[in-house]
Amino acid sequence: MTIVRWDPSRELSALQQQVNQAFSSFFEPGAAPTATTARWIPPIDLVEREGEYVLVADLPGVAQDAVTIEVERDVLTLAGRREIHHDAPRGGVVRSERVAGSFRRQLTLPEGVDADAIEARFADGVLEVRIPKPEAAKPRRVEIRIGRDETPAIDAPVDEREPALAGG
């Protein structure tokens, strides 16, 4: 008899696989999950620099005209679609791991970002969006004067002001 040491990670891995299969069959009945039916979420990096934020998104296989960038209020939305075309006849694809479909990523911008100053560049499947930082609210110092100001706050004839001051 061979003694096998119990490994909880092996059992957790098997359980995770069963749960994944159950959910994929629930959302797509009658179809085994494949890479082409999976949801594609392109990876992004957001880097903070001196006067700007730079968003970099990897969009391999996405045409430039299939990508849109919109800013509404303080939310930047990056959306698009990637198509996968095979030259093989129907049923001729033996293995397909590339994912196709629509994607949508949203990023909350700091308050005060000038949407008209945002710039985007797309080259070699990489999208770079430059977002200028908003001007920081600068504190304003209020001057404090000594003494009374000779100009009254409300312009009124002298005769009307004096009884109110005497009776008040």
Automatic annotation (TrEMBL):
Location of the SHSP domain: 35-147
Residue segments, region Disordered: 148-168
A Pfam short name: HSP20
InterPro entries for this protein: A-crystallin/Hsp20_dom (IPR002068), HSP20-like_chaperone (IPR008978), Small_HSP (IPR031107)
CDD domains given for it?
ACD_sHsps-like
- Per UniProt, the ranges with Basic and acidic residues bias are 158-168
The organism sits in which domain of life? Bacteria
- What family name appears in the similarity comment? Belongs to the small heat shock protein (HSP20) family.
- Protein name (Swiss-Prot/TrEMBL): Hsp20/alpha crystallin family protein
Its source organism is Patulibacter brassicae
